[in-house]
From TrEMBL:
InterPro entries: Acyl_CoA_acyltransferase, GNAT_dom, Ribosomal_N-acetyltransferase. Pfam families: Acetyltransf_3. SUPFAM superfamilies: Acyl-CoA N-acyltransferases (Nat). Residues 40-188 form the N-acetyltransferase domain. It comes from the Bacteria. It comes from Deinococcus rubellus. This is GNAT family N-acetyltransferase.
Length: 215
């Protein structure tokens, strides 16, 4: 797909440590070896069902790509999903998604991310979240951001807490068919604003608003 025809593929969020680039097919191809090698290292399993990354290779790769391709075109005023490939230097190391939830009426978003096992425990999860929150609040005028993580996904829960999210109850979900408790978090714009960073750059956000039905 030509990036000139679809503005979300031109979108970039740049921080001092990493860059988020709209997930073009070329960038997704760079991530295929990571997906092929396996993103889920073992228990505790981090993702709720259904999740292509739990599938056996090569079904995993095919379902992962198909889900992203479907998501690109499934855009409505109330719901949309932007897919980003995380670049560390010139190396593709994971993904960060921003998901509009009732955005036309409530201006709310949530997020989803994963990193290659080789680059975990380096503080990149917090940097990725800071980048996507900057896009949501500064770029698109979101009012609130939500996040969910299983109770034993310590890394994700720590990131949410460190970014100023507040606990927002819990829920149940399955992972690989087994039920487990999800912690729910939310961050209001007024709580994000005092810690707004000045070193994050947005490229192409304005051009995406029409595609996403954002006024």
């Amino acid at each position: 797909m030509s990036t000139n025809l679809y503005p979300p593929l031109n979108l970039k969020v740049i921080t001092p440590r990493l860059e988020l680039h709209g997930a073009t097919d070329e960038l997704l191809a760079q991530l295929l070896p990571v997906v092929r090698g396996g993103v889920v290292a073992g228990q505790p399993y981090p993702f709720d069902d259904p999740m292509s990354l739990y599938e056996d290779n090569p079904v995993r790769e095919r379902k992962w790509l198909q889900a992203i391709w479907r998501g690109r075109g499934n855009v409505h005023p109330e719901s949309w999903r932007l897919y980003f490939v995380i670049l560390l230097g010139e190396q593709a190391v994971g993904m960060q998604d921003l998901i509009g939830v009732n955005f036309d009426t409530c201006q709310t978003v949530t997020s989803f991310s994963w990193l290659a096992p080789s680059v975990r425990q380096q503080g990149l999860g917090r940097e990725m979240r800071a980048a996507i929150l900057h896009l949501a609040f500064e770029g698109f005028g979101a009012a609130e951001a939500a996040s969910e993580a299983f109770f034993d996904n310590l890394a994700s829960n720590r990131v949410s807490e460190s970014m100023g999210y507040q606990p927002n109850g819990s829920d149940w979900a399955t992972r690989r068919g087994e039920p487990a408790v999800l912690n729910r978090w939310r961050l209001k714009r007024d709580d994000w604003a005092p810690n707004r960073r000045s070193d994050i750059e947005l490229i192409g956000a304005e051009e995406c608003k029409a595609v996403l039905h954002i006024k």
